Amino acid sequence: MGKRKAWILNLGLTLGSVFFGVFIGEIGLRLAGIEGLKKLPQPGHGNFSPSFYTMSHPDLGWTNRPGASGWWRQEGEAYIKINIEGLRDEIYPKTKGKDTVRIAVLGDSFTLAVQVDVEQTYWSTIEKELQNCAELQGKKVEVMNFGVDGYGTAQELLMLREKVWDYNPDIVILSFFIGNDIIDNSAQLESNHYRPFFVYKDGELVPDYSFRNLSLEHSDRYWITAVDRLPSGLVNHSRILQVAKKAERDLKQKNLLQHLNKLNAKNFREPTDPVWQEAWNITEDLITLMNQEVQQKNAEFLLVTIADPMQVHPNPAFRQSFMDTYQIEDLFYPDKRLQKLSDREGFPVLNLAEPFQTYSEENQVCLHGFEKAVPCAGHWNPDGHQFAGKLIANQLCQQVKK
Question: I need a labelling partner for 356 at 20 to 30 A (CA). Which of 232, 244, 268, 276 fits?
Fold first, then answer.
């Protein structure tokens, strides 16, 4: 009996010490103002990429939040305002006006472009530049922005079906980012599974909405932590657990960056493994399907490829070092492959990589990046948007002449 009492006493002292230590830790972290991260309430892209302008969507995975507004200062700086229809643009009537040429732009974060003011975006530049197009004299040109952060071609095709056709556009532009759109279209390559993918069924591409039933722990391996598997009430009232979650999340994000650097390099090489071969096949078939649907609506289609920042870095030695590190023979491989696709399927494509590289090297300027972020990397700065807008407007003006 004495041994049992001693064991109980030791257990009590141990537990008491643990609880006292936890109590002191909780108080100390609060007094020091050290904060962590609370538990994610449910699976959804709004949790993985939290922003005031994003919300979950049952078909698209996520979309812009109608009516959202506020400042963005993480990369670049701009006041963001999402209209009631969920577009970062002015409000357009569904019925197109007389003598109006309406252009719909589908794309990802390069198109949403929260890093710059609306007036500086490439789609605003297109609208202004087309006023000088002789073939469009007497016409009102409306360029509508359907861009959403993080979208791949699969979601852009669904956006075309669900929202774009309501506005009866004459031209549909698909802005394709070389840096990650192929990855985004593959369920095996993309780490965030809270999104729709397209899969082959009886030889045809069909949307897969299985993300709707996805559990939290299977949503994104680089975002979900061990703490997220604990009860919400415990996590959200414990500063220690919140700090532990932040530490694990920071480590996961560092690992994600290393993973993406290696993964993105494969965009520039002929795929040899089945996963990348399928990713390319799905991507090309999605673009082909989009072109076909645009043609069926008696509209015109234009594919615009947005360069990866590495392709257009102004320093040739920097680009060569990247190529040597990852054994890349041709940085323009993806652009040339998409050019071959356009030749086979008979739709126009504008590859921005080569003119961007030439311009940035000749003028020694960065068309990507901002002063308070990584230079010559990330998204387009105002110069990049303006240069892209002028190139695209020139392409469109030539296209409407035919």
Answer: 276
